[in-house]
Amino acid sequence: MAIFIYGTVNNTGKDFFTHQDRRDFFLRGYTGHDGSNYIDTWVIGANEKGALWLAEKSGTEKTKAQAQALVKASDDLARTAWDDDNVDGESADEKVVRIGEKPGFVTIP
Amino acid sequence: MSTYQELKGLKVKFLDSATSGDRAIEGEVFYNSASPNGSVHIAAAAWSAGTALTTARRQTTAIGTQTAGLCINGYTDETVNISEEYNGSGWAVGGTTTNAKRLHGSAGTQTAGLAFGGVGYLVHNESYDGSTWTELANLNTGAYAIIGFGAQDAALKAGGQISGTHAIDSVESWDGSSWTEIADMNTARQLGFGVGTSTAGLVFGGSVPGITANTETWDGSSWTEVANLPAAEDGHSGAGIQTAAISFGGAPAINATKSWDGTSWSNSANMGTGVGFHGGAGTSTNAFSAGGGPPSSNVANTEEYNVSLLTRTAAAWASGNAVNQIRRKGGGTGTQTAGMIFGGLDAATALGQTEQYDGTNWTEVGDLNTARGKLGSANAGSQTAALGFGGSTAEPSNPAIVNNSEEFNGSSWAEGNNLNTTRYVIAGAGTQTAALGFGGYTAGANRNESEEYNGTSWTEGNNLNTARGNIAGGGTQTAALGATGFIDGGGGNSAVTEEYNGTSWTTVTSCPTSQQTARLAGTQTDAIIFAGTPNLATTFGYDGTNWSTRPSMATGRDYSTGLGTATAALCAGGNGGSPGDEGIGTVEEFTGDTFAATAKTIDFD
Predict the structure, then answer these.
(1) Taking CB atoms and an 8 Å cutoff, what residues of chain A touch B299?
(2) Which of B320-324, B431-435, B598-602 is the least confident region?
(3) What is the CATH classification number for the domain harbouring B377?
(4) B-chain residues within 8 Å CB-CB of A103?
(5) Cβ of A99 and B579 within 8 Å?
(6) Whether B156 contacts B174, CB under 8 Å
(7) Cis status, amide bond into B579, omega within 30 of 0
(8) Distance between CA atoms of residues B297 and B276, nearest Å
(9) DSSP character for A19?
(10) With an 8 Å Cβ cutoff, are B396 and A93 in contact?
(11) One domain for residues B414 and B514
(12) Are B195 and B342 contained in the same domain?
């Protein structure tokens, strides 16, 4: 039995997920990118309430591989942006202080 | 016919709701005008979700109570030697056992524990004093899937599996210095459970082979068969004493709970999620379950069992409406339902925008005079009396660091006097008229200075013990808290936590993880920190002494804005993954555990 289901749907704000939703099923959001736009990518507990939540939000169910690919595309953009963000004369340490460490690749559960 | 008042000496109250809040008393009979009907407050059993273990595992054990529990060892994808301590709200790192083990026996309490045996027919026996595990005299016979109960200095090890057999009936007694063979159980078993003391015990269930419902009591000299469980089970856990116990869960992953009253078993409330090979401890009315799993995977689940008038609703993060201006590295103050954020950075521009939140919607108000990000804020301020100080006016070019502070009066920002030490990613605490700024960076240097603001000017206070920036800060000017951060120059992420008493900083218990850019809500003695680099969703609670876990956010982020209290916090914006983009605008709201009395309707038919 699968532990998680995967889907994409953008966070619409208040009550997009409620406190009760968080108690009813696992939910973790990641930034994904579909080649054109950033899209919120969700890992959802594979129970009835989790599946119902994704359906009620008109989300698009993805396979784990598809969801991971979306997140990796976002990671690639973030890493490229970090590489390109340089200041003349700045040391590596100073760059980390200024903009943080280079983003890694996120592996979704 | 007698009246209720004549029988009980009490009048039937006339109330306007089914819950009478803090007036609720067990057995209280009242008339509910809202329904309308007669109602009574009756304690009911229920399981509720608790904060998950830090390390998901199965084949683990637990001891102690619901507010001072210990989960010991187990199996992840290997046998582990970790323990975690539960305080009723979250888990904190406990001592590391000398030997990794699983399916072992345990006894005692969180501060006086005992763990013995385990897979591999281990004979190891260790005691725990609340911080350190120490090797003691070995078992006579190494076994696993054993039953353990009792105290650190008076425990029993019963049954289990030894090499070449399925289950054994032998029992050993521990007196604090050595194990002694005593009378055998009537039924050999492994994977059973036991509760009670070394002179008044109860064992139930297990595999003999074949799953059994058999229950036996121990009086200090002999075992006696008593009423069976309603259903056979193994891999279950339990809690309580010989005369009042519960059994819950079991292989492969059942959610049933049975209650023992000293004579017979009855069914009680089901767990939220079925588990087997989990840890369980506590009493027959206040117990907890930790970890376990479906047979070949691990869960970190914690559930609490309570027989109470009060129904617990577990803490959780929920989504809020997004801010109007997407931003990261902004300042914030106020509460979850009357908060405000100000400043910050988008892709390359410092922002002056200020927005106020009423618990539902964000409304733009007057901008900062000096647009900036990475600023400090007096985060115990309000929507009508806020303070922002320091920061950087440009990124990604070299940070243009500023030292000016600004005061907000509910509609506009006005210049205040400057910080003495110019810096950015400075942490803040207190109010507009009694603020504290501490830590941060100037170009290439960690700052350890703290400064106090009295509503007019900044005065040097004593320094932090550990110079660093990106600290999660909060509290008041005379009771501040600074947790985690980043130490430039190779120090990296920090778990250091320091408390300020209005005069000096004291280093206290470190946060469970080293991290930076987390945000803090609450006070020095009741705080949570959340989010952080890299895009963390984790939440930890601090009670003035110890750290423990809290439910995670749904979306991890760093450089966000945080505000509020330990039970009603807000996290807004931040980086969602890309340091090169403009950040995110999403918001999450944290609500701590809540408890409410419930009443049952009296059926007069």
Answers:
(1) none
(2) B598-602
(3) 2.120.10.80
(4) 534-535, 577-579
(5) yes
(6) yes
(7) no
(8) 11
(9) H
(10) no
(11) yes
(12) no
Look at B576 and A31 and tell me if their CB atoms are within 8 Å: yes
Contacts of B398 in chain A (CB under 8 A): 87, 90
Least confident of A72-81, A93-102, B284-293: A93-102
Reported pTM: 0.78
Beta carbons of B318 and A18 less than 8 Å apart: yes
Of B366, B406, B410, B373, the closest CA to residue B389 belongs to: B406
**Closest Cα in chain A, distance from residue B558 (Å):** 10
Chain B: give the shortest CA distance to residue A90, in Å. 8
CB B493 within 8 A of CB B535: no
CA angle B579, B585, B587 (to 5 degrees): 120
Is residue B598 a part of any domain in this protein?
no
User: pLDDT tens for residues A8-54?
Assistant: 999 999 999 998 898 888 899 998 999 999 899 999 988 889 999 99
The answer, yes or no, to whether residue B467 has pLDDT greater than 80, is yes
Q: Which helix (DSSP H) or strand (DSSP E) does residue B308 occupy?
A: strand B302-308
d(CA B425, CA A64): 37
* One domain, residues B377 and B275: no
Least confident of B36-50, B380-394, B415-429: B36-50
Which of B62, B533, B52, B83 has the alpha carbon at shortest distance from B315? B52
Round to whole Å and give the CA distance between B326 and B323: 6
DSSP assignment of B434-494 equals EEEEE--EETTEE---EEEE-SS-EEE-PPPSS--BS-EEEE-SSSEEEEEEEETTTTEEE
Contact (CB, 8 A) for B233 and B254: yes
Beta strands in B60-141 (DSSP E): 61-65, 68-75, 79-86, 91-93, 105-108, 113-116, 125-128, 133-135
> Is there a single domain that holds both residue B272 and residue B398?
no
Instruction: State how far the Cα of B116 lies from the Cα of B142, in Å rounded to an integer.
Output: 9
Can you tell me which residue has the tokens 């109570």? B65
* A11/B397 touch (CB, cutoff 8 Å), yes or no: no
* Contact indicator for B498, B505 with CB cutoff of 8 Å: yes
* Contact (CB<8Å) A28/B552: yes
Selection from B175, B293, B307 nearest residue B239 by Cα: B307
As given in the structure block, the two tokens for residue A48 are 């009835």
Range of the domain at B336: 316-591
φ, ψ for residue B389, nearest 5 deg: -150, 150
Same domain for B161 and B30? no
**A102: alpha, beta or left? (left if phi > 0; alpha if psi -120 to 50):** beta
Q: What number of other Cβ atoms are within 10 A of residue B19's Cβ?
A: 17
Q: Does residue B455 register a pLDDT over 60?
A: yes
Paired sense of beta strands B279-282 and B286-290, if any: antiparallel
Taking Cα atoms as reference points, which of B557, B558, B581, B584 lies closest to residue B573?
B584
B425 and B464 fall within a common domain: yes
Q: Please name the member of B319, B443, B535 whose beta carbon is closest to the beta carbon of A11.
A: B319
> For the purposes of burial, counting CB atoms within 10 Å of the CB of B456, is it exposed (0-12), middle (13-18) or buried (19 or more)?
exposed
ipTM confidence: 0.81
